[in-house]
Amino acid sequence: MEESSKKFMNIEYYAKNGITLPMIPQWEMYYNSLAKHIGYQGAALYMELVHFFETVSKLNSAIETRSVEDVRIIYEVFLQYEYYNCGEYNYVETKVH
After folding, report:
1. What is the pTM of this model?
2. Distance between the two ends of the chain, CA-based, in angstroms?
3. With 0-12 CB in 10 A as exposed, 13-18 as middle and 19+ as buried, what is 89?
4. pLDDT profile of the chain (97 residues), mean per 10
């Protein structure tokens, strides 16, 4: 997540050059391992992780088809969600946990 979010800052460069964001397919397994320590009351954290990794997947699909405009739209929707998210976490706070 840390590596992916660093690249979010330069998403247009990566999109134009066809470089996908790092994606760890085992992220859900890692969360479930973490959940044993923090308890499953961390549903808000889980939902934020789901949203983050679904966004990474959408961005990667758009990058692979070299659709820079789609990348821009997906990224802007993600930022709008984060700025107006009333939940317990945003993706910056999720990285801390």
Report:
1. 0.70
2. 11
3. buried
4. 77 87 76 67 73 88 90 90 70 56
